[in-house]
Design a protein that fits this description.
The complex is a heterodimer of chains A (76) and B (160). By secondary structure, chain A is α+β, with helices and mostly antiparallel strands. Chain A has one domain: TusA-like domain (Translation Initiation Factor IF3). In chain A, 30% of the residues lie in helices and 34% in strands. A four-stranded mixed β-sheet of chain A has the order 1-2-4-3, covered by helices on one side. Chain B has a domain of 106 residues: 3-Layer(aba) Sandwich (Hypothetical Protein Ychn, Chain: A), CATH 3.40.1260. Chain B has 160 residues and is of the alpha/beta class. Chain B has a five-stranded parallel β-sheet, sandwiched between helices. Chain B contains six helices and five strands; from the N terminus they run E-H-E-H-H-H-E-H-E-H-E. The two termini of chain B are 26 Å apart. Classes of the chains: A alpha+beta (76), B alpha/beta (160). The interface between A and B is medium-sized, with 14 and 11 residues.
Chain lengths: 76, 160
């Protein structure tokens, strides 16, 4: 797994909370820094793709591991 | 006018289940960079109360799943039994909590944090003799023309 600057554990949270928490966390980062999000909501896979497209923050990685979803988002 | 995308929602319903769409969509739109406004009218004004007492009603709601297959064999009139609404509301809240679905209060405060503009329909407030002191802070009052001022420039307009 690539390096990241901050981690957000959104496990157990359902739509739209993982997105809203991620947005909040990204607001505290500098441009170029990377946020690692962990989620259990299967809907978050498509949602983080859509979030990334619409906000311009690039989704560097999206993968499933041990029943959890991991995302790396770089702040634009 | 900014080049931000805009979302306008009219919220007309005052039940627990119907409180979700306006607040989920507005908070998410705000996170995606939309400028968002919700116009609360008629029963939708219940969603602006400081102390929410929203209920879910199985009455007249044939699509609502009920525990233990009750929706299959329970007579329709049974849903009108006193206390049924309270039972269904408690069950729905417990289910939402167990599935990690945010409460309406939480989503609403996330909307406020994200500066979603909330407008209460002045006519309905007067019609039902509602007290603005019962509503959360930071809301504005206006009428249909106020709604169109924003909606006319919106990319998406939803009626809930």
């Amino acid at each position: 797994m690539a390096t990241f600057d901050q981690e957000l554990d959104a496990s157990g949270l359902n739509c739209p909370l993982p997105i809203l928490r991620a947005k909040k966390s990204l607001a505290g980062l500098q441009a170029g820094q990377v946020l690692h999000i962990i989620a259990t909501d299967p809907g978050s896979v498509k949602d983080f793709e859509a979030f990334s497209k619409q906000t311009g923050n690039s989704l560097l990685e999206s993968r499933e591991e041990g029943g959890k979803f991991h995302f790396l988002i770089k702040k634009s | 006018m900014s080049d931000e995308k805009r979302l306008a929602i009219i919220a007309t319903k005052g039940t627990l289940d119907w409180a979700y769409p306006p607040f989920i969509l507005s908070s998410t739109a705000a996170a995606l960079g939309y400028e968002t406004q919700i116009f609360f009218t008629f029963y939708g004004l219940q969603l602006l109360r400081k102390k929410l007492a929203l209920k879910v009603s199985p009455l007249g709601n044939p699509g609502m799943p009920m525990p233990m297959g009750m929706d299959k064999w329970f007579p329709v009139l049974g849903t009108a039994i006193p206390g049924m609404q309270a039972i269904m509301t408690a069950m729905m809240k417990a289910k939402m909590k167990s599935k990690g679905v945010a409460s309406v209060e939480e989503l609403r405060s996330l909307c406020q944090e994200a500066e979603v503009k909330m407008v209460a329909c002045q006519m309905t407030v007067d019609l039902f003799d509602m007290n603005p002191a019962d509503f959360i802070d930071g809301i504005e009052y206006g009428g249909a023309a106020t709604f169109f001022e924003f909606a006319g420039e919106a990319d998406i307009v939803l009626y809930v």
